[in-house]
Amino acid sequence: MTTTLYIPRDSSALSLGANQVAHAIMQKAAALNIPVNIVRNGSRGMFWLEPLVEVVTDAGRMAYGQVTEDDVNSLFNAGFLAGHDHPLRLGLTDELSWLKNQERLTFARVGITDPVSLQDYLDHDGYKGLHNALKLSGAKIVQQVTDSGLRGRGGAAFPTGIKWKTVLEAKAEQKYIVCNADEGDSGTYSDRMIMEGDPFVLIEGMTIAGIAVGATQGYIYVRSEYPHSIETLNLAIKTAYASGYLGRGILGSQHDFYLEVRRAAGAYVCGEETALLESLEGKRGLVRFKPPLPAISGLFGKPTVINNVISLATVPIVMDKGSVYYRDYGMGRSRGTLPIQLAGNIKHGGLVEKAFGVTLRELLYDYGGGSASGRPIKAVQVGGPLGAYLPESQFDTPLDYEEFSKLWAVLGHGGIVAFDDTVDMAHMARYAFEFCAIESCGKCTPCRIGSTRGVEVMDNIIAGTEHAQSVALVRDLSDTMLNGSLCALGGMTPYPVLSALNHFPEDFGLVKKEQAA
Amino acid sequence: MHDQQARIKSHIESHQHMAGALLPLLHAIQDDLGYIPEECYGNIAKALNLSVAEIHGVVTFYHHFRIHPPGKHVLQVCRAESCQAMGSQALETHVKSSLGIDFHQTTSDGAITLEPVYCLGNCACSPAIMLDDQVYGRVSSKQVDRLVAEAKEAV
User: Are residues B9 and B81 in the same domain?
Assistant: First the structure.
């Protein structure tokens, strides 16, 4: 009897030696003449346990964590192929509380299926959403997406259905669906996990979007730092074309949809939607003035739906299970679930998909297990390099777009980077300006010049030169960038800067009572 | 040199009719040659009906593209927040001093080009580096030294 094993092909698992482990297991099995079938799945998202090897047993999938090449002999000796005990054995994967307590909707299949097997996708409810969509008019599909309450998961949280409606109603001979997979925020990797762990769900979501608004061409703009995502997507796209899920007459319908992966070239600003469109057109990634909105005049001047990977990958479940099913998760105006990514100095880093409303504290301690270093968590940055730093006193905030706005913070793409008490927040504020200076597209002055001036002023603050004036100047400069920049890069760099200054004035050489927020 | 021109020409021919062809074309050239020779700007411009200035503008805008041949291996060290929270600054300092170069430079033996990178999406396993096309997570200074030594040996 052949034993089936799962060893992830996810970049993070590979970065910890998953290929070497798979190879060693294959060699050992061959030497012992034991037939094994190794499936290269996506990651379950428990990255501190990677490489995670799962063995299919009668009781379910048995997990062995942090497996290295050197453990392979002892695993075989312990009888791991029958699910027997070993120091690395964690128990049945589905019973691990870290996974069990999540609400995985968008990530329902990630880590479970073979990402490049269409059959596996179909066996796990794949393409049910598309079948439903094919029975509906474009307007009905758009209505269902609107009713689900889904908001853009890239960070801007704009209602996805409203965006689609604008494109649906725009008249043009050609429309486009563009997927923003330029996931450049530090602390985020959920797009990557979808692309490497369940690429068909993204393809399905984009196909539904195309059918809904009448677009026949789609592009996935993937960052060049993600070679494995590009490879996995291309494999899945090829299969989808060969099986009638892409191309002319999708599943025998009147709808055509063509899809192509385009590789970015390392510019963070191209995650901004209009800069991304410029880049797709083969130009420098300069941010465009809005209006016109991309929904009216987007790629090559045509009406364009541009959505983040997670937004598009969530569409299939909305079309499969209905808008009410999705909308019933969440709180306030934040409906559904958010794939949260725990990163930085955290003991149990990984992907937690939960309904909106979970608090930072639950995420950092119940899931994250506190800091990796064992020291107190001093600050967390939520929402990438343009997100605010939050101190411990704000850890009870529920994850909700509006609750975060009240704190002058953002959820962004759902990345949470933890820092222990060794972090110097003045240094992090300086870094925020430095990053903005490196990545500024240069079109608007507040961002282009302000970021460089910001680094200089922060150097003065750190050195104690003209201290009081420099602190006043950094606030003034932040105000200019906040209100005068063309896009979020310059406009939100003040979030990490001022939140660091306001919450951690002692790191800026100020005593707490001088705090002048 | 002649071979290089022929290869560039074939990349231009296979890409020039794509919508938004410039980035895919530049990637094809750099994937093949390791860099984008400035001498080819004119031919690209002509094929895509653009100006040489536009080609130069695009090549220099994107961090990924380079106009000089890199070392045999490219080592990217992540500088973003998540990796900083796990000690990437010390790692960065160590790598620079052990290789004897700064970012955007190549070791004198031509083996390693060192580049900064702002997030590899491996943030649950910080600090991260990328050596050529392979990402490594939870990296220690010792491990980088070993990877560099192995890469140099493989040259």
Answer: no
- Domain boundaries, position B38: 2-61
B3 interface with A at CB cutoff 8 Å: no
B91/B133 same-domain check = yes
Q: Compute the nearest-CA separation of B13 from chain A (Å).
A: 16
pLDDT in tens, B44-99: 999 999 999 999 999 999 999 999 999 999 999 999 999 999 999 999 999 999 99
State mean pLDDT over B9-16.
98
Q: Are residues B119 and B48 in the same domain?
A: no
Contacts of B58 in chain A (CB under 8 A): 282-284
**What total number of domains does chain B contain?**
2
**Amino acid at residue number B1:** M
Write down the pLDDT at residue A403: 97
Q: Which residues of B touch A285 (CB under 8 A)?
A: 61-62
* Pairs from A453-457 (Cβ < 8 Å, separation ≥ 24): A453/A477, A454/A430, A454/A478, A454/A481, A454/A493, A454/A497, A455/A430
Query: CA-CA distance, A416 to B123, in Å (whole number)?
Result: 10
Q: Which fold has domain A3-100?
A: Glutaredoxin (3.40.30)
Closest-approach residue (CA) in chain B for A368: B124
The Cα B106–Cα B40 span in angstroms is: 23
Chain A residues with CB-CB distance to B74 below 8 A: none
In the numeric block, which tokens belong to residue A358?
């979970």
Identify the architecture of domain A330-420 in CATH. Roll (3.10)
List, as one string, the DSSP characters of A299-343.
Answer: GGGS-EEEEEHHHHHHHHHHHHH-HHHHHTSEETTEESEEEEEEE
Do β-strands A217-222 and A176-181 pair in parallel, antiparallel, or remain unpaired? parallel
Q: What are the chain A neighbours of B115 within 8 Å (beta carbons)?
A: none
Choose from B63, B125, B136 for mutation: most chain A CBs within 10 A.
Answer: B125
From chain A, the residues in CB contact with B126 under 8 A are: 343-344, 349
**Residue linked to tokens 């005990």:** A85
Our CA-based measurement puts residue A345 at a distance from the nearest CA of chain B, in whole angstroms, of 5
Residue B28 placed within a domain: yes
Query: Per the CB < 8 Å rule, is B63 touching A267?
Result: yes
Nearest to B126 among A16, A50, A344 (CB): A344
pLDDT of residue B155: 59
DSSP symbol at A367? I
pLDDT bucket at A516, cuts 50 / 70 / 90: very low
Give the confidence band of A224 by pLDDT, cuts at 50, 70, 90: very high
Q: Are residues B110 and B131 in the same domain?
A: yes
Task: Give residue B40's pLDDT.
Answer: 97
Say yes or no: B103 and B140 in one domain: yes
Per-window interface: B 59-98 vs A, CB < 8 A? 61-65, 80-86
* CATH of the domain spanning A118-327: 3.40.50.11540
Q: Is A249's pLDDT higher than 70? A: yes
pLDDT in tens, A33-46: 999 999 999 999 99
Is the pLDDT at B154 greater than 90? The verdict is: no
Residue B67: inside a domain: no
- Please name the member of A191, A300, A344 whose beta carbon is closest to the beta carbon of B85: A344
Q: pLDDT digit string (tens) for A266-307?
A: 999 999 999 999 999 999 999 999 999 999 999 999 999 999
Residue B140 touches partner A, C-beta closer than 8 Å: no
Same domain, B50 and B89: no
